[in-house]
């Protein structure tokens, strides 16, 4: 064999090796699709069993991870899908780690994050009571200003006339008349002697809106949509985090690692256990 033929053979082997290295069979989507088709299941069957949409199932089988919610979501998705198809998830996760770089989920904080929540038993003054207190304080300030104004002080004669007699006499000294001390009325005080101050107005939620409070005891991911299909909370959170989501019910919730998340709907706690499958809960809160 000539040197030219040897070089051409080496180039062909290199091209074949590069093609095999880039084949999609090294990602888990193809194996999951083949396992589903071998069991005679459609995309709709898998979506109903896993509580995911057919679009998400198709994206996972096509190894299109950019349309999914970050690395934690994809790994949990593959683990649940593999168990449903009676496949071992560990080799599939190893193929995922070796074959692609997963996108990072975008965490969007709600607009009212950090807002003070009313404590149980805490009393709030209504708007008209707070307005009345403000008017009383303004009236007291006007009265005090009127009492200390220089125009309200009594006027005194500048000089006292001298009596006309045959012999001049020294005018009698008159005591200096001091103006009465102004009386300033203080604002009403409470029983402890502290000055009464109007409390800040309470945060008012419109009647057609509701508030969900989520507390995390371990790392998890969450996606919540309101009645208009607008995403009001989405992202990956750590232990000790607390998130608040406001929107119009009903809400659609997707919760990964549901045992580490507590959901509070007003005074009612939402139980995630009946809606969880392989630690992924999907439910609607009316």
Automatic annotation (TrEMBL):
Record SUPFAM superfamilies: lambda repressor-like DNA-binding domains
The record's listing under PROSITE patterns reads: HTH_CROC1 (PS50943)
Q: Which domain of life is it from?
A: Bacteria
The name under which this protein is listed is: Cytoskeleton protein RodZ
Question: What keywords were assigned to this record?
Answer: Membrane, Transmembrane, Transmembrane helix
The record lists the membrane-crossing segments as 127-148
Which parts of the sequence belong to the HTH cro/C1-type domain?
A: 32-61
Q: Per its record, what are the GO molecular function terms?
A: DNA binding
Organism lineage: Bacteria, Pseudomonadati, Pseudomonadota, Betaproteobacteria, Nitrosomonadales
């Amino acid at each position: 064999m000539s040197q030219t033929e040897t070089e051409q053979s080496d180039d062909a082997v290199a091209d074949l090796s590069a093609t095999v290295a880039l084949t999609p069979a090294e990602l888990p989507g193809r194996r999951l699709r083949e396992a589903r088709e071998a069991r005679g299941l459609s995309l709709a069957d898998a979506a109903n069993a896993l509580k995911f949409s057919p679009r998400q199932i198709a994206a996972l089988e096509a190894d299109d991870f950019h349309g999914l919610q970050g690395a934690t979501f994809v790994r949990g998705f593959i683990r649940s899908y593999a168990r449903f198809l009676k496949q071992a998830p560990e080799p599939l996760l190893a193929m995922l780690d070796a074959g692609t770089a997963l996108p990072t989920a975008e965490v969007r904080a709600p607009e009212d994050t950090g807002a003070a929540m009313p404590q149980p038993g805490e009393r709030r003054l209504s708007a008209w009571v707070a307005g009345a207190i403000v008017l009383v304080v303004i009236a007291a300030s006007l009265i005090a200003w009127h009492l200390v104004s220089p125009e309200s002080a009594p006027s005194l004669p500048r000089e006292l006339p001298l009596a006309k007699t045959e012999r001049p006499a020294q005018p009698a000294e008159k005591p200096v008349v001091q103006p009465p001390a102004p009386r300033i009325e203080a604002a009403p005080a409470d029983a402890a002697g502290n000055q009464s101050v109007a409390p800040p107005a309470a945060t008012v939620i419109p009647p057609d809106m509701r508030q969900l409070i989520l507390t995390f005891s371990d790392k998890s991911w969450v996606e919540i949509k309101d009645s208009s299909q607008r995403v009001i909370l989405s992202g990956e959170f750590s232990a000790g985090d607390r998130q608040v989501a406001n929107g119009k019910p009903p809400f659609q919730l997707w919760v990964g690692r549901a045992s580490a998340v507590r959901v509070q709907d007003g005074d009612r706690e939402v139980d995630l256990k009946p809606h969880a499958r392989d630690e992924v809960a999907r439910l609607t809160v009316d």
